[in-house]
Every structure is written in C-alpha cells, then in structure tokens.
C-alpha cells in the first residue's frame, strides 16, 4: 500500500490517499472535455482506498451533472480538480492534483468516439521547455 499526497492549485485543499491505483484512464468523453477545458481528463481509480483531507475540506465542492454519473470535485477558490468518491466507494483521483509522483502509465484511452478532432498526430507538434517567445 502506498501513500499519495496532493493539493489544489491555491494550496488550500490538501489530501492523502492510501492505497494502490487499479487503473489510470485518459477519458475523452465530452463531459471530461468540458470540465477540464482540454482534450481529455487523466484520472486514477482505486476500488479500496482511504481518502483523508489534511486541510481545506470545507473548500471542496462537488458537482454532479444531472441525469448522469459524471461527478467532479474541485476547490471552490481556485477551481482545481480534486478527488471524489463515486457510487460503490470507487475513488477517482485527478492525476494532475497529486504532488507525489505516480509511476503507473495510463491504462487506456476511453470514450475515444468523442475524441476532440484536433487531438491527433500530436507527436509532430513542436515542443518547448517553457512558454515560447
């Protein structure tokens, strides 16, 4: 069992996750595109894990899209995505909110039928170590 630590962007919400990740999915569904503002969400899942809020639990807000199982928890001050517990106790952890390195590679791309049209041939796009001038 491993301990993972994470925070939101403003540092108000701090948490610990105890457990081993069962899966790491890059979700391309339209809901995840909307709530990340990007091509996909990068989420880790744990079936049996313990989530502990170390600070700022009162700043965590959860939104569930009506008529769906799509749920997102986030900091009400900075908007950063944060862990949440889904139906049946499944813990979802947005990979980007972790401060502890995750050695696991993504398990799979999911909902690729909704993939953004511009999310292709990205290996051919120039790369920069910082914001280009």
UniProtKB/TrEMBL annotation:
The family database entries (PROSITE patterns) matched by this protein are listed as:
CENP_V_GFA (PS51891)
Its protein name is GFA family protein
Q: Which residues form the CENP-V/GFA domain?
A: 4-119
Q: Name one Pfam family in it.
A: GFA
Q: Which residues form a coiled coil?
A: none
């Amino acid at each position: 069992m491993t301990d993972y630590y994470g925070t939101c962007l403003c540092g108000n919400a701090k948490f610990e996750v105890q457990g081993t990740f069962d899966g790491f999915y890059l979700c391309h569904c339209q809901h995840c595109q909307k709530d990340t503002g990007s091509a996909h969400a990068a989420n880790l899942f744990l079936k049996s894990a313990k989530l502990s809020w170390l600070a700022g639990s009162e700043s965590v807000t959860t939104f569930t899209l009506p008529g769906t199982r799509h749920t997102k928890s986030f900091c009400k001050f900075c908007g950063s995505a944060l862990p949440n517990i889904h139906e049946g106790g499944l813990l979802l952890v947005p990979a980007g909110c972790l401060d502890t390195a995750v050695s696991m590679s993504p398990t799979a791309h999911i909902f690729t039928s909704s993939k953004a049209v511009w999310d292709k041939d990205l290996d051919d796009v120039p790369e920069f170590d910082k914001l280009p001038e």
